[in-house]
Structures are given as C-alpha cells and as structure tokens.
TrEMBL record:
Entry annotated with the keyword Transferase: yes
Name of this chain's protein: TIGR03087 family PEP-CTERM/XrtA system glycosyltransferase
Upper lineage: Bacteria, Pseudomonadati, Pseudomonadota, Alphaproteobacteria, Sphingomonadales
UniProt-listed CDD domains: GT4_PimA-like (cd03801)
Pfam families associated with the record: Glyco_trans_1_4 (PF13692)
Length: 412
C-alpha cells in the first residue's frame, strides 16, 4: 500500500524522557522510516515546546498546540457532557482542524493513534487503515485507583474507569489493529472487548547504547557515601510511583536500616508532589526531584527497586536499570512483559518482607548482585532493543519503505 501516515499522540514525542514519550518517540521514528508522517500532538511544558525543531525535522508536517486546559475544567466539561475526563482533557479545537485539513489534503493511507484519548480525532467516516496503540488498558488502571481510594475520589475514579472501558471497546472495534505494550495487557483488553479481533502486543524496547554502564560515571554523591544505595526513578506526580516510594520508605526501609544503618533510598524524578517531598524527612531517604540525567544515579545504585502495586504494561524504569547492569528488586506488577527468569535476570519480591530479605542479602553479597546485573544487561541486549521491538510495524500499518527510505534507515 502506498501513501502517508497520520500519527496522533496525546503528548509530543520529544524529548523522550518519560515512559509514554519514550515509546511514542521510537514508534514515530520507525514509522518515519516507512513513509512520510504527519504528526499531531499536544505540548505540555516549556521543554516540550522547545523540541519543535526536532519534531519538524522528522515530520512531513506537524501540529503541536499547547495543552492548557486545567484538569478541573476538563472535569466540569466531562460531567456536563457525560464523557470521561481523560477524553475532555486532551480535546483541542486547533488540532481537530489540522487533522481534518491533513486528511483532506494529503494522501493518508493509515492513521496511527498513540494512546486511546486521541481516538476522538479520527473522523467517523474514516475508511482507511486505523491502528490504535492503547499502550495500557487505562480503564483498568482507574478501576484499581477506585479500589484504593476513599470518597470522593473513589467515585471519580470508578466513573472514569466505567466510561473509559466503554470508550476503549468502541475504539478497538473500529480499529484494524489494536496494540498494547505487553501480552498480558493485550489479553486483558481482549477479555474486556469480547468478539473484537486483531488485539495484540507491541512491546517496549530499550536503547542499550544510551544505557551503557561502560559510558556512564556514577553520581559522585552516591559513589562517595556509605550504602547500600537503593534507587527508584520515575515521574513523581504519577499516582502508582507515589504509592511505590511511600511503600518503600515506610514499610521496607525501616527493616533494612536495622541491619544496614547506612542504607540510603534515593527517589529520582521530576515533579515530586508535597507528599513525596515529605518523605525526605525519613531516615536514609533523599528526594532528588528532576535531574539532568538519571543514568549516573543508576550507575551508582547498589540496587534499583520497583515496588509498584499498580502498574500497567512494561516499566521503562526496569528496562533502563537492567540495561545499566543493575540488579532490580521488583514487585510482580513491575515485571509485566519482561522476558526473564526470577533469580537470574531480576529478583521478584511478592511482599514487603521479601523486599527486605532480598535487599539485605544482596547488600552482603556484591558478587551475586553483579552477576544478576550482568545477566540482566545481556538479556536486554539480546532480546529487547528498539529496532527489534519495532520490526513488526511495517506489516501493522500496511506500508513498506521505498528504496530511499530503506537506504536512509540502513544508514542510520
């Protein structure tokens, strides 16, 4: 099939500095190797808007309005219209107009939606190929939030989960192909959309050249201080990450400190909430907030921890740590979609007590910690590079690259 691609994402794919943007960035690069790609996305921060030149260099054309609608306003609009808040929050009239004009004026053969919220921009009369990359089953995430929340947020999250579940089923039924980030997420979506075909997985990869321990100097403050050092990285205004660091600080670190009084827990990531910043008052805990580069912290870590209780899809934080040859102590939820063996490539911890036991055992056995870390890096080198993960995209969108794009891709 000849033609061009319309790529719609809820956030700009630049810079690739958080989980969803890392995935969208690599998907966009892979699509651009197949055909001209027209990109519609929403910018949120000054850093996003500063990446306009990078987006322009990759896209055949683009539209990147700034998302300025406050969440409370999105909530009011959603209540008034009966829509999910997640849909209202990413509604933008300028982007609607640009999509309509692009479909009218360009030979678009396929639309690739990144994140279900962007399905609202696909015209009802669109008859070309439609690929929806849901990434995660968002409705299930809000259902999990509801189960953990008190009123009134329990009602808000339950409503969001209920409305998104209906929306996801409708969008999946329209799509020629629906993608999730792991086989487990794909199975969950199939169970929630009975009778809907073509639901599968397109897994995340990792840039092993960027996350190479041989090229990164450990952070000086950690390297020069007694340990062991446990590191958690992630967007720190994201509820599952907040829950994870509160869990490690309050339920796991105290027991570790009884055996290793010099142990340190480092929380690394942008936009820490007041609740996260408050954790710095606890013994052995440092909240770093946004840092220029997370890799020096990973390089200096004795272990990387991922004690998530709510997690959807593949955790980039786990892949990054594994690529950096670090032993990862992770909950079962944080290991979804990662092909590896417990005890060989990572250590699965099913409870707080297991986190404590494994953390203390490896703090006393550096040889084993290094062995697991080296095996982890080899695993991602062998099986989880971004080119390997993105190889199915040509068949998924129904396009094959012409000679010029093939040569450009091979030279890259």
């Amino acid at each position: 099939m000849a033609g061009e691609i319309l790529f719609l994402a809820h956030r700009t794919p630049f810079p690739p500095d958080r989980g969803d943007k890392i995935r969208s960035h690599n998907v966009l690069k892979a699509l651009a190797a197949l055909a001209p790609v027209h990109v519609g996305c929403l910018g949120e921060t000054d850093a996003d808007m500063a990446e306009e030149k990078a987006l322009a260099a990759l896209a055949a054309s683009y539209c990147m309005p700034r998302r300025t609608k406050p969440l409370p306003l999105a909530g009011i609009e959603a209540l008034a219209t009966g829509a999910a808040i997640s849909i209202s929050a990413f509604e933008n009239k300028a982007l609607y107009r640009w999509v309509r004009d692009t479909l009218t004026n360009r030979p678009i053969a396929a639309i690739y939606i990144f994140s279900g919220q962007m399905g609202q921009y696909v015209p009802h009369d669109w008859s070309g190929r439609l690929v929806v990359d849901f990434v995660d089953v968002d409705s299930a995430k809000f259902e999990a939030y509801a189960a953990k929340s008190g009123l009134p947020m329990r009602w808000v999250h339950a409503r969001e989960g209920r409305l998104l579940r209906h929306y996801e089923a409708q969008l999946a039924a329209r799509a020629d192909c629906s993608l999730l980030v792991s086989d487990e997420e794909a199975a969950l979506m199939r169970a929630r959309c009975p009778g809907v075909p073509n639901i599968g997985a397109l897994r995340n990869g990792i840039d092993c050249a960027l996350y190479d321990p041989a090229k990164v100097r450990p952070h000086r403050d950690l390297a020069n201080a007694a340990g062991p050092h446990f590191v958690f990285s992630g967007q720190m205004d994201y509820a599952p990450n907040i829950d994870a660091v509160e869990r490690f600080t309050r339920r796991i670190m105290p027991a570790i400190l009884t055996l290793h009084p010099a142990a340190q827990f480092h929380i690394v990531g942008r936009v820490p909430t007041p609740a996260v910043r408050k954790l710095a008052s606890e013994q052995g805990v440092t909240v770093w907030g946004e840092v220029p580069d997370v890799r020096p912290f990973l390089a200096a870590a004795s272990m990387v921890v991922a004690p998530l209780t709510i997690a959807r899809g593949v955790q980039n934080k786990v892949l990054e740590a594994m690529a950096m040859a670090k032993t990862v102590l992770a909950s079962p939820e944080a290991l979804t979609g990662i092909d590896g063996e417990d005890g060989e490539h990572f250590l699965r911890c099913d409870s707080d007590a297991e986190f404590v036991a494994q953390a203390c055992a490896l703090a006393d056995d550096r040889f084993r910690a290094e062995k697991v870390g080296k095996a982890a890096r080899q695993l991602v080198l062998d099986r989880m590079s971004w080119p390997a993960m993105m190889a199915p995209l040509a068949d998924i969108v129904g396009l094959t690259p012409g000679p010029e794009r093939t040569a450009r891709r091979n030279a890259a």
